[in-house]
Design a protein that fits this description.
Strand order of the largest sheet: 2-1-3-4-5
Organism: Corallococcus interemptor
EC number: 2.7.13.3
Radius of gyration: 39 Å
GO molecular function: phosphorelay sensor kinase activity
Helix content: 40-55%
Strand content: 15-25%
Order of helices and strands: EHEHEHEHEHHEHEEHEEHEE
Oligomer: single chain
CATH architecture of the largest domain: 2-Layer Sandwich
Enzyme class: transferase
Catalytic activity: ATP + protein L-histidine = ADP + protein N-phospho-L-histidine
Shape: elongated
Length: about 425
């Protein structure tokens, strides 16, 4: 038996508790705690010196009681414990450690100067030891054994962190999914509930406007009702398209054979009739520009680009619409307007939803038009981009494959143009 030393009533770490630099030279690398338990300070110092090259956080205590307190406060990779200590010896301390669920599987290495009697060694294993070393301890062997437990501990900690991150990611994804489903339901409900009474309003207004003997005051009133109803109808349509594009897997398109130039002529004629004071110039390289697209959806795109060009350009300047082809597989459409260029800080987010420009139509716009337009173009396998400078004004350039690539957008010839 060793001579009894003074008992330490409180937890006293002989080693410096401040973080040390890891062996890889990085102070930010994760480190494990190693608990040393021995009632002789010189033995603790010797063990600390042996374990110093591992670069881990070594905590030293001088009794079994202090060891139990330390294990209550922190997590440890392993424990190096002297067997013969006054009061609560190493074997009894290990037994108590094993009774707690948190430290039930904590690796304990016994270090002792006792003889090699098999019965005593067996007793140490029964009390929870994973290894048994006799003094004097070979430094290389001790470091090798401890480094194994440190590596296992750090791997376990990394796996636990990854599991927590995965659980948090799944929780966030589930919340986003629930929010998405709620958004879809709300927009669907609002769209359906608004469409029904709105259809009745528009039908009534149009029926009254078709009467020849309608007094002028009533006619103007019903015209205002019809215009307001059509604007509400447009807003509902945009919200539904936004929901499809954002959370519904993209805006659906139904391609069919058609002529892009013919579509452009119809839209320009309608805009000229609605805004006779504005000039819209068409430049078609070919009279006909056939292809396979969803013409109803493409009408949304072209109408939006023309409407924006008219809205955000001086009244005395023309808006230019140009179409041409390149090879036999792709066609192009450009809408250009004069006036002040789009501010550079707005260009990176111009096609994002709820982005509105500064102009006379800002209050009437939800800021969804360009987002929906690009979504429709991309659903065809095409691209939509913008250039805006003081020299050329603002040009929206649209590239479409001759045949809409609904299922193979990655092979579109227009894709490289976005670079």
């Amino acid at each position: 038996m060793k001579p009894s030393g003074p008992r330490t009533p409180v937890l006293a770490a002989v080693s410096d508790a401040s973080p040390r630099r890891s062996t890889d030279g990085s102070s930010d690398a994760p480190r494990a705690r190693i608990l040393l338990v021995d009632d002789t300070p010189s033995n603790l110092l010797a063990l600390e010196a042996i374990l110093e090259p591992l670069g881990q956080h070594v905590v030293s205590v001088r009794s079994g009681d202090e060891a139990l307190k330390a294990l209550l406060l922190d997590e440890y990779a392993c424990v190096l414990m002297d067997v013969q200590m006054p009061g609560l010896d190493g074997l009894e301390t290990a037994r108590l450690v094993r009774t707690r669920e948190r430290t039930k599987h904590l690796p304990i290495i016994f270090i002792t100067a006792l003889s090699r009697e098999a019965a005593y060694v067996t007793r140490g294993y029964e009390y929870g030891a994973v290894d048994y070393l006799l003094k004097p301890v070979d430094p290389d062997i001790l470091r090798a054994k401890v480094s194994v437990f440190v590596e296992l501990y750090l791997r376990g900690e990394k796996l636990r962190e990854q599991a927590l991150e995965l659980a948090e990611r799944r929780r966030v994804e589930e919340e986003l999914q629930r929010a998405t489903e709620l958004e879809q339901q709300l927009v669907g409900i609002v769209g359906h509930d608004i469409r029904t009474p709105l259809a009745a309003i528009l039908t009534t207004a149009n029926a009254q406007l078709s009467r020849e003997a309608l007094p002028e005051g009533q006619r103007k009133a019903f015209e205002r009702v019809a215009r307001g109803g059509e604007r509400i109808q447009g807003i509902v349509d945009q919200l539904l398209d936004f929901t499809r594009a954002r959370v519904g897997g993209g805006i659906p398109v139904v391609p069919g054979a058609g002529d892009l130039n013919e579509l452009c002529r119809k839209l320009v004629d309608e805009l000229r009739a609605a805004r006779p004071e504005r000039s819209i110039l068409c430049d078609f390289v070919r009279d006909s520009l056939p292809g396979v697209w969803d013409l109803d959806r493409m009408a949304q795109v072209v109408a939006n680009l023309l409407d924006n060009a008219l809205k955000y350009s001086p009244r005395d300047t023309p808006v230019r619409l140009r179409t041409y082809e390149q090879g036999v597989d792709s066609v192009y459409l450009e809408v250009q307007n004069a006036g002040a260029p789009i501010p550079a800080q707005l260009l990176p987010t111009l096609f994002e939803p709820f982005r509105r420009g500064d102009g006379p139509g800002k209050r009437e716009s939800l800021g969804l038009g360009l987002y929906i337009a690009r979504s429709i173009v991309e659903a065809h396998g095409g691209t939509l981009r913008v250039e805006s400078t003081p020299d050329v004004g603002t040009i929206f350039s649209l590239c479409l494959p001759r045949q809409a690539l609904v299922e193979a957008r990655a092979h579109s010839l227009c894709a490289p143009l976005t670079a």
